[in-house]
Specification:
The structure holds two protein chains of two kinds. By secondary structure, chain A is an all-alpha fold. Chain A contains eight helices and two strands. Chain A has a two-stranded antiparallel sheet with strand order 1-2. The radius of gyration of chain A is 19 Å and the shape is globular. By secondary structure, chain B is an all-alpha fold. Chain B is 63% helix and 2% strand. In chain B, helix 3 crosses helix 4, helix 8 packs across helix 10 and helix 10 packs antiparallel against helix 11. The longest helix of chain B has 24 residues. Chain B is elongated. The termini of chain B are far apart. The chains are: A mainly alpha, B mainly alpha. Chains A and B meet through helix 2, helix 3, helix 5 and helix 8 of A and helix 2, helix 4, helix 5 and helix 6 of B.
Chain lengths: 196, 295
C-alpha cells in the first residue's frame, strides 16, 4: 500500500466509512499476522494476536488524525499486542514451536530446487534460520522482522518500537550478526561435511 | 579503526539499501581499502541473502478467506459480552482509592513509626535528658567533685551509683549479720528497714527515669527491689530463716557482683558518686567484709 493509499484509507476511517475498516483488515491482515507469528512463533497465537490487534485498531479509530501514518501505527499496536500475549502466556510452549522445515506451511512457495538433495538442503537452512531467529531477543527479532519482511525503514522501526534510531541500528546489526554466526556453522568444511 | 567502527555500524543499512548514494559510495571506497570491513560486509550480506529460502510466514487461502468472518464474529462477541454483563447483573459499586492516598498513608505510617521509635527506643529516659556539663573547674552541678573537665555525665547515673553503693552496704550488712555476734556485726533492724524503704523509693524513681536506656541497670534495680522488700519486711533481727532466704537471694542473683560490675562500668558516675566500692576479692566476688556498722 502506497503512502497515498494509506493516507486515503486513514481519511475514510476518520470519516466513519463502514467499508474502510474491512479494507484495512484486508490490506494489513497478512502483515499483522506475519509480525505476530514471528513474535509468538505459534500460528494459533498469531491469529489471536492479529485479531486482538484489529479490535484495538477498531476501538482506536476515533483517535486517528488526518494524514496519520497508518503503517507504523498498526505495526506498533501489533508489536505491543504480541508482547502482551507473550507475557500473559509467561512461557514459550517450545513443543508447539512449528518446525517449518519438517512441516512446511501449505502457503509457502514450493521449493524451486529441482532435486531432493537441494530441497533437503533448503529445508535444513530454513530450520537453521528458524533456530537462529529463536535465539534473538524480542527487540532484535522485532527490528529484524520489520526490516527484512515488512520493509520498514530504520526510522520507521524506531517510531514503531518507540526507541532511538541508534538503538534500531544496533539491534539490526546484532541480529544480522547472530544470524550470520548461526548460519556460518552450517558452512561445510572441505572433506568432512558440516562443522560441529 | 574509528572509521571502521562507523562503517561497520552502517553495514545493515547498506545491505537493505537505506544509505544515500553518496554515503554508499564512501562506504564502498572504505570497503575497497579495508579487507576486514569488506569481509564482514560480505558475510552479513550473505546471511541476509540466505533468508530468501525462508519466506514470510503465511497461511492457506482458506484461512484468509474466513479471516474477516472470524474477526467479525469475535468483535461481535466482545461487544456483546460487556453489554450482557451490564444487563445481567447490576454493576457493583466500585470504590477506587486514588494512588496519592496510598502514598500519603505510607508517609504517615513511616512518620508515626519514626516518632514511636524515637520516643521509645532511641531517646533516653526523661530524667536522663538533662545532661550536666562539667565546668572547667571540675565541679559538676550539685557540687559533685571528680568530674573530668568537659565531660558529660548524666545526673541520673550519679544517683544510680549512689543507690547501688548504699544497696551494697545494706546487703553486706544483712548477709554478714549474725545474731549471736556482738556489735557491730548484729543487725540494727530499724535502721536497715528504713534504709531499705528509702532505697525502694529511690529504685522506683530510678527505674522510671532509666526507662529502656540502660536495661542492665534496670534489671539490677529490679532484682535489688526484691531483696530490699524482704529486708523491709523483716520482723526480727533473730529471724534466721528470713535472713537465710535473703542471703540465698543475694547469692543466687549475684547481686553484689553485679553491683560491683555496674560500678566498674560507670567510672565517671562512680567517682562522682563518692567513695569507690568496698574491697573485692581478686576473683571478682565480694570478700566477706563485715561492714554492718556502715549500714
Amino acid at each position: 500500500m502506497s503512502r497515498e493509499d494509506e493516507a486515503r484509507l486513514a481519511d475514510r476511517l476518520i470519516a466513519g466509512d463502514p467499508s474502510a475498516f474491512r479494507e484495512l483488515v484486508a490490506a494489513y491482515q497478512r502483515k499483522v499476522y506475519g509480525l505476530a507469528y514471528e513474535m509468538t512463533r505459534n500460528h494459533d497465537d498469531a491469529e489471536d494476536v492479529s485479531q486482538i490487534t484489529f479490535m484495538k485498531i477498531h476501538k482506536a479509530i476515533g483517535t486517528l488524525k488526518p494524514g496519520f501514518g497508518l503503517n507504523t501505527w498498526i505495526y506498533q499496536i501489533t508489536h505491543n499486542a504480541a508482547l502482551d500475549h507473550i507475557r500473559k502466556r509467561s512461557f514459550y510452549p517450545k513443543e508447539a514451536l512449528p518446525s517449518r522445515a519438517s512441516a512446511p506451511h501449505p502457503q509457502e512457495p514450493p521449493d524451486s530446487a529441482p532435486g531432493p538433495e537441494e530441497r533437503a538442503e533448503s529445508a535444513g537452512l530454513r530450520r537453521r534460520i528458524d533456530e537462529a531467529l529463536a535465539k534473538f531477543s524480542e527487540r532484535e527479532r522485532a527490528v529484524f522482522i520489520l526490516r527484512h519482511y515488512h520493509d520498514l525503514k530504520v526510522k520507521e522501526i524506531a517510531q514503531t518500537l518507540n526507541v532511538s534510531l541508534g538503538s534500531v541500528k544496533s539491534y539490526l546489526f546484532r541480529s544480522i550478526q547472530k544470524l550470520q554466526k548461526e548460519l556460518d556453522l552450517l558452512e561445510p568444511c572441505p572433506g568432512d561435511g558440516e562443522r560441529p | 579503526m574509528k572509521r571502521c567502527r562507523y562503517w561497520r555500524k552502517r553495514i545493515p543499512e547498506a545491505i537493505y539499501g537505506e544509505l544515500e548514494p553518496k554515503t554508499r559510495e564512501k562506504m564502498d571506497r572504505h570497503l575497497a581499502g579495508c579487507r576486514g570491513c569488506a569481509a564482514l560486509f560480505e558475510r552479513m550480506a550473505a546471511a541476509v541473502r540466505k533468508m530468501e529460502v525462508r519466506p514470510a510466514p503465511d497461511r492457506s487461502p482458506q484461512f484468509w478467506e474466513g479471516y474477516w468472518d472470524r474477526l467479525e464474529a469475535r468483535m461481535g462477541l466482545e461487544a456483546e459480552a460487556p453489554e450482557k454483563a451490564r444487563a445481567g447483573s447490576p454493576r457493583p459499586r466500585t470504590f477506587s482509592i486514588p494512588a496519592w492516598a496510598y502514598g500519603l498513608a505510607g508517609a504517615l505510617l513511616f512518620l508515626s513509626l519514626g516518632i514511636f521509635i524515637g520516643r521509645t527506643v532511641l531517646r533516653p529516659g526523661a530524667e536522663l535528658a538533662p545532661l550536666v556539663r562539667a565546668k572547667s573547674s571540675g565541679i559538676a552541678p550539685g557540687g559533685q567533685p571528680g568530674l573530668e573537665t568537659g565531660r558529660v555525665v548524666p545526673a541520673l547515673a550519679v544517683r544510680a551509683s549512689r543507690y547501688l553503693k548504699r544497696s551494697r552496704v545494706l546487703l553486706l550488712a544483712v548477709v554478714n549479720s549474725d545474731p549471736k555476734d556482738e556489735e557491730p556485726f548484729r543487725l540494727n533492724l530499724p535502721l536497715q528497714k528504713r534504709t531499705s524503704e528509702e532505697l525502694l523509693q529511690e529504685a522506683a524513681v530510678l527505674k522510671k527515669g532509666l526507662g529502656s536506656a540502660d536495661r542492665r541497670l534496670e534489671r539490677l534495680i529490679s532484682d535489688l527491689e526484691m531483696i530490699l522488700l524482704q529486708i523491709a519486711n523483716l520482723t526480727s533481727e533473730s529471724d534466721e530463716a528470713a535472713i537465710e532466704i535473703i542471703r540465698a537471694g543475694v547469692e543466687g542473683r549475684d547481686l553484689l557482683f553485679k553491683i560491683n560490675l555496674s560500678e566498674t562500668l560507670r567510672p565517671a558516675a562512680k567517682s562522682s558518686a563518692g567513695q569507690p566500692p568496698g574491697s573485692w576479692g581478686g576473683n571478682g566476688n565480694p570478700a566477706p567484709v563485715r561492714t554492718a556498722a556502715a549500714a
